[in-house]
Amino acid sequence: MSSNAPRRPVRDLRFFLTVPHACSYLPGKEATTLFLDPQESPVPGVYDSLSLLGFRRSGRHLYRPHCEGCNACRSVRIPVDEFSANRTQRKLWRRNADIETRVIAARFDAAHYALYADYIRQRHADGDMYPPSRDQYRTFLTLEEPYAHLLEMYLEGELVAVAAFDQLEHGLSAIYTFFKVDESLEKRSLGTFAILKLIALCQEKALPHLYLGYWIEECRKMRYKQAFSPIELLDGRHWRPIIR
């Protein structure tokens, strides 16, 4: 993602805090979110700069956690040129060699939504995105911006997974992945495979990083991110390797 337009300094942007609300990841905790002013669309330059400071995109909004007395949510990214797939990941890559992929613009597609809705019902019926709806899906994962993309995955002509991602100047940002929930596909670990495909896409585009969003050490659902090595976290304004 690039632009010839002059960049606005981050200090000139307006931000807003939400009121405290129940944390989606840590039971019993309250969370507060810092949002870029909704009047400021996530244009190139602004988005690039804020992503280096730990901001993420959801629909047309850029945000990051801003919780008083808690910094459990840490932004993480993979330096793709240093990435070394482990034995399990190499086996997974070979196991999914028959999956065909295609990158398209982040537009609404009825087949995508049907897959998403089934995924939410089966895997996240206890989460914030349940029950799914077309409006919710459109707001979350479709965006008419040149940096917003979807990675489709097909197995024998059937759509089995979609990974939403953005292309930044300094990497790709993984937004969300959903896939067909079926016992016959469990060994394919399609969520992990999507990350491996995005790493490969970064390498193909000569982009240095794949951003994986937030990591919470105490959150079981986020432990899969630790399987990618090396991985860096944002410590204040500096990215440093996670030492394990």
From TrEMBL:
GO CC terms in record: cytoplasm
Top-level taxon: Bacteria
Record protein name field: Aspartate/glutamate leucyltransferase
Job of this protein: Functions in the N-end rule pathway of protein degradation where it conjugates Leu from its aminoacyl-tRNA to the N-termini of proteins containing an N-terminal aspartate or glutamate.
Compartments where found: Cytoplasm
GO terms (BP aspect): ubiquitin-dependent protein catabolic process via the N-end rule pathway
UniProt keyword Cytoplasm, yes or no: yes
Family annotation (HAMAP family): Bpt (MF_00689)
Residue span(s) of domain N-end aminoacyl transferase N-terminal: 21-91
Pfam families hit by this protein: ATE_C, ATE_N
Organism: Vreelandella aquamarina
Keywords: Acyltransferase, Cytoplasm, Transferase
Catalytic activity: N-terminal L-glutamyl-[protein] + L-leucyl-tRNA(Leu) = N-terminal L-leucyl-L-glutamyl-[protein] + tRNA(Leu) + H(+); N-terminal L-aspartyl-[protein] + L-leucyl-tRNA(Leu) = N-terminal L-leucyl-L-aspartyl-[protein] + tRNA(Leu) + H(+)
